[in-house]
Amino acid sequence: MTSEQIARDLLKIRAVFFRPDEPFTWASGIQSPVYCDNRLTLTAPEVRSDVETGLAELVRRYFPEAEVLMGTSTAGIAHAAIVGHLLGLPMGYVRSGAKDHGRKNQIEGRLEHGQKVVVVEDLISTGGSVIEVVNILRDYGAEVLGIVSIFTYGMQKGLERLAEAQVENHSLCQFDEIARIAAEEGYIQPHDVQRLLQFRDNPNDDTWKGATT
User: Fold this and answer.
1) Which is nearest to 194 in space by CA: 174, 179, 184?
2) What confidence category does residue 30 fall into, taking pLDDT thresholds of 50, 70 and 90?
3) Rounded distance, CA 102 to CA 89, Å?
């Protein structure tokens, strides 16, 4: 499965939607020209098949020794389950916090100390949430081989966090490529590509809003 095909799939179902002239507001308060909702891949069977096949290929290629897949909560859970089925691997997921009842688990599913784990994530921006999952698994005693994800922005902060945590991520689609294809297919204007990349390079600098040529 090629990254270009995944990019076209995500654009087709508006899982990645560009709106440089009417920015979205992220939970952090950052004004963004792009909105990503990869949960929509689950409701589009053909795209879902491409995505899950692609994620399975990433695991086979980069982490062939994987013993368990662990999804991030909540967006990575379904993808980890489907990819686990394709690969014949067990899966589980990591909660954002431990339950306050029952066994008070934070890691759901069977995981043995020392097992080799691949984390399945839908989207990586600044990398904070997925690194938290990696650290929880490591603290438990798992050997985290790396991360596979559908889409990554390639933001500097995210790259730095991944490097600091000494964990590699492999994504099906990169921000640069999806921006280029969005311009080619008429979702955005060609001059918007540079604005999008300017946002990606420094999301706290909103001068991209005025860069219309």
Assistant:
1) 179
2) confident
3) 26
Give dist(CA 208, CA 32) in Å, integer: 10
Q: What DSSP assignment string belongs to the chain?
A: --HHHHHHHHHHTTSEEE-TTS-EE-TTS-EESEEE-GGGGGG-HHHHHHHHHHHHHHHHHH-TT--EEEEETTTTHHHHHHHHHHHT--EEEE-SS--SSTT--SEES---TT-EEEEEEEEESS-HHHHHHHHHHHHHT-EEEEEEEEEE---HHHHHHHHHTT--EEEEEEHHHHHHHHHHTTSS-TTHHHHHHHHHH-TT-GGGGG---
> CA-to-CA distance for 185 and 122, rounded, in angstroms?
24
**Nearest 5°: phi and psi at 116?**
-90, 120
pLDDT of 170 > 60? The answer is: yes
Retrieve residue 164's tokens: 């600091």
C-alpha 101/C-alpha 119 separation (Å) is 25
Q: Which amino acid is at 75?
A: A
Q: What is the dihedral of CA 6, 59, 137, 73, to 10 degrees?
A: 30
The residue type at 210:
G
Look at residue 103 in the predicted model and tell me its pLDDT.
54
Q: Could you tell me the pTM of the whole model?
A: 0.93
Contact 59, 87 (CB under 8 A): yes
Cβ atoms of residues 131 and 160 within 8 Å: no
- Mean of pLDDT values over 51-77: 97
The tokens for 193 are: 């590509």
